[in-house]
Amino acid sequence: MGGESAVTEPRSARTGSSERGSRKAAPKKKKPKKKFSVKRMMIWMFFTGAVAIVCAIIGYLLIALNGERILAANQDEFVFAEASTIYDADGNEITKLYRENREYVEFSKIPKLLRDAFVATEDKRFYEHNGVDFFAIGRALVKDVIARSAVEGGSTITQQLAKNMFLSHEKTFFRKASEASIAVALENKKSKDQILEMYLNRIYFGKTAYGIQAASELYFGKEKLEDLDIWEIATLAGMPKAPSRYNPINNPEKSQERMAVVLSLMVQQGLITQAEADEAKAEAAKYEPPVANEEKVTQPYPAFIDYVINEAERVSGLTEEQLRLGGYSIRTTLNTKAQQIVEKEFADPSNFEESVDDQIVQGAMIIIDHRSGAVQAIGGGRDYQVKGTNRVLDTRQPGSAFKPITVYGPALETGEWFPWSTLRDDKKCYGNYCPTDSNRVKYIGPVSMEQSVKESRNASAVWLLNEIGIQRGLDFAKTLGFELAPEDRNLAVALGGLYNGVTPMQMATAYSVFANGGKSVDPHAIIKIETRGGGTEYEYKAPRAKQLIEPETAYYMTDMLQSVLEKGGTGTRARIDRPVAGKTGTTQHGVPGLVSSGNRDAWFVGYTPEWSAAVWMGYVRTDAQHVLKQSSAMSAAMFAKVMGQAMKGMPVTSFDKPGNVKEVEQPPKVGGFSVKWSEDQMGVQISWARQSDKNLLYNVYRKESSEGQYTLITQTSDTSVLDQGVMANSTYEYYVVSYNSDLGLEGEPSTKVSITVPEPTMESPSDLEDPENLENEPADDLPDNLGNLPGNVTEPDVTEPSNTNSNDPAAGGNAGGNASGSPNSAGGSGSVNGGSNAAGSTGGSGTGGNTGGASSGSVEGSTGGTAEQPGGTNTAEPDGSADGTAATPARGSQPTGRSSQIAPKVDVNQQDTESAAGTANTPQP
Fold first, then answer.
1. Do the first three CATH levels of 76-295 and 670-763+806-925 match, i.e. the same topology?
2. Nearest to residue 905, comparing CAs of 715, 709, 755?
3. CATH homologous superfamily for 76-295?
4. CB 848 within 8 A of CB 882
5. Calpha distance 702→837 (Å, rounded)
6. Which parts of 531-610 are beta strand (E)?
7. Topology (CATH level 3) of domain 670-763+806-925
8. What are the Polar residues biased-composition ranges (predicted)?
């Protein structure tokens, strides 16, 4: 057994070997073919369909999710960019602010025929699909394959909305896929009516018009959509395909061709009849563009609108971009009538000086209702462009228009100076600063503040600022809103010579304080800003008015500024048919090397009881060829032209007068004024009529022809004085004014009269009588003052009279001796010789150059002074006629013989101090 088992093979090995051998030997058998089975086919189709459905669901979900993602990331796009509307003070629309000219219209306000026309033209299956129209897509694909390019869009209204809101206008597969996904998402979030409403308000119609409302107004001038005719509806419905090509203004033929296609579609879909379509075509042939609405594209009143935008940004915090996109309603203070007049007058070249080249004389004007601070109108410049330089806010030198702000206003505010206060108008230097006046203005010495304002005198203005102090002037200017530079701390600030300059807006605001009784004025151009939903974004709240200056100061300043427009003032051309107060101002050209006269800036700032206004004119760049040849006359005339027209029809009112203003009646003008040479007393006899008020004093002024200013020579209560302080061959000019010493107020100057003192014509020695025989001559042939001759009279040598004033009050024979002396001394006369007024007791006497001391011309009773006075001032007004000049004999030694009498000669050269032109002391307006 053990042996068998050792040689026996395993079973498996034997079996495997035998099977391999048998397989190789046996032939292969063919498998039978499977037969077609319906069941199998159904299974396959079910499986394929299921996969397709799953893929479609997944694809749809992906598309929807992608659309949802895009919508979520662009929520702001649902807030439509709608134009903001600006209204004037009366609620009338002025213009629109927009980046895209759009006015949103709710679905209910869009006529059904208009909605249906767009659906029929752009997407007739709009109410049947879910945002993507696969039939339209298929049609588009076929056309694209045939054309071998993307020529057919196949987009639904929803897809067009998606494209306009979120995508570019490229025709690519990826853009179309995104467009479809957004359309699906929109359909899931919005109803069909909401989608159509958004579409009609967003679609572009060309020429900056976005939305159906803007297009209706632009192309047909119709603000209400229900007023659109069938042909107009069809025209608009055909435009979205190609707004520029089918624009009825630019391409009327193409537009009518496209309109015919739309009308045909409307007929096919039963929206209108064929007869209505034919009638619409006939009406369209008569189309004329609405010119007025076309012009609305150009923004009206650009300077005012730019000012409103800047103010809106400042007061509301809104940006300009938000204002142009947010659909706000902005109610402004604009007075459209005034604004139109400003722009009309600024467009008239005759209102400005003619330039030598294309650099025109520029201008600016601002009008403010100082009762409320409401800006009425703005002239930002000639040919002002949107976002240009608004010259109402541009700084320039104000010249004399600044005097009320730094000189007269602060002086009045002290309570120590009044319009009747006397200033000094003398040629004077203050250190290295020597103010000058126009060549047409002569220095007149004493001058009232009102006359200084009226005639725009520089010397007296600087003198007054020096009196009250520069700091007081600067503080007053700051109170009125001016931030002056440290460099302005000098007397030149009196004449408006500023380091940085001021703006017309600032000047109008400052003068508004005078007009408003001294109370603050807050200029503003916006009343209210409302959101598109009617909510209040901003509303103007007037700040509580502050009493910046005393009411009396404002009243006195107004009273003086009214005189500027009266005869003799510098602002007569600003007169209109209602009360006006104002001030002119000019600045010198300052061109190096240019010696001719001319100005850099010309102003008129003024106000009525209702409105304040500032007008500026000048070149932007001043050089030798570009200087103003006139003064402020054209600026004043512009004020009158604009304000006169703009305020026409408004009630005429007067300036308010505070109840506690001191009533001051100016002393009356002196009449019956005359001057003549007194041969007997060897002096100028000055006389006048006594005024009704017996408490008045009289100031007598004199000026020698070579002198630049008048000098007060005496103050008296009498009605005549004798001026013995004159020189032979000299001409003197006199005037007299009544004076209220309690108020320190002078009246209006009398007329001025000049008198010339010639050499006396002496008889020859051979013709002289023997002194011993004088007693044989008739008494009435003797000189009037012969009885006063001292001692024995002897014949003197015939010599030239002395013209030298020894200033010796007792010196006889002196032509100009002072009329001083001990008070109440016997035999003293009150004659006025060439000294200055000095304090002392009344009734002082003194001997003059005359032999003897005639009592005529006595100044007894004069207040606070001796008879020692400077030589004369006022001139005669003989018989109330025109002023004249009397040539008088010279004073000197009295000859013992009879001297020939020289008749005074009248020189009619005196001028009224209120004369507007040609006077010695009144500037030209």
1. no
2. 755
3. Biosynthetic peptidoglycan transglycosylase-like (1.10.3810.10)
4. no
5. 13
6. 536-539, 581-588, 599-607
7. Immunoglobulin-like (2.60.40)
8. 891-925
Coil, helix or strand at residue 611? strand
Angle between helices 252-268 and 112-122 (to 10 degrees): 100
Q: Which three-class secondary structure state does DSSP give residue 377?
A: strand
- For residue 704, which of 758, 760, 759, 756 has the smallest C-alpha distance? 756
Could you tell me where the beta strands, DSSP code E, fall in 589-709? 599-607, 611-618, 674-678, 683-687, 697-704
b/e burial code for range 702-740 (CB count within 10 A of at least 16 → b): bbbeeeebbbbbbbbbbbbbbbbbbbbebbbbbbbbbbb
The reply to whether 122 belongs to the active site is yes
Say what the pLDDT of residue 496 is. Answer: 95
Q: Are strands 611-618 and 362-369 parallel, antiparallel or unpaired?
A: antiparallel
User: Which helix (H) or strand (E) covers residue 260, if one does?
Assistant: helix 252-268
**What stretches of 672-717 show up as alpha helix (H) in DSSP?**
none
- Phi, psi (rounded to 5 degrees) for 91: 85, 10
Catalytic residue, candidates 155, 181, 400, 858:
400
| Residues contacting residue 46 through CB under 8 Å, at least 6 positions apart | none
Do residues 834 and 808 lie in contact, with contact meaning Cβ atoms separated by under 8 Å?
no
Q: Is 311 a catalytic residue?
A: no
> Per the residue annotation, which of 122, 345, 455, 877 is the catalytic one?
122
The residues, any chain, with a CB within 8 Å of residue 364's CB and separated by 6 or more, are 379, 380, 381, 390, 391, 392, 394, 504, 614, 615, 616
Tokens matching residue 670: 């002196």
Closest CA to 733 of 764, 758, 711: 711
Instruction: Please state, in angstroms and rounded to a whole number, the distance separating the CA atoms of residues 512 and 525.
Output: 16
Show Cβ contacts of residue 850 under 8 Å, excluding neighbours closer than 6 positions. 681, 682, 683, 724, 785, 831, 891, 894
Task: Produce one character per residue of 312-323: b if its CB has 16 or more CB atoms within 10 Å, e if not.
Answer: beebbebeeeeb
Digit-coded pLDDT (tens) for 719-750? 999 999 999 889 999 999 998 887 777 888 89
The domain locations on the chain are: 76-295, 670-763+806-925
Q: What is the pTM of this model?
A: 0.64
Q: Which residues contact 599 (CB under 8 A, 6 or more apart)?
A: 586, 587, 588, 589, 618, 627, 628, 630, 631
CB atoms within 10 A of CB 766: 5
pLDDT averages per 10-residue partition of the chain, 925 residues: 43 46 53 65 80 70 59 58 92 89 89 96 88 69 59 73 65 60 81 93 86 93 95 96 89 94 96 96 92 58 96 94 90 98 96 89 98 98 88 96 98 94 92 84 86 96 98 98 96 95 98 98 98 94 96 97 96 98 92 81 98 96 85 96 98 93 81 91 93 87 86 93 92 93 82 86 48 40 35 36 34 35 35 39 36 34 33 35 36 31 32 32 34
Q: Is the dihedral of CA 213, 218, 224, 229 positive or negative?
A: negative
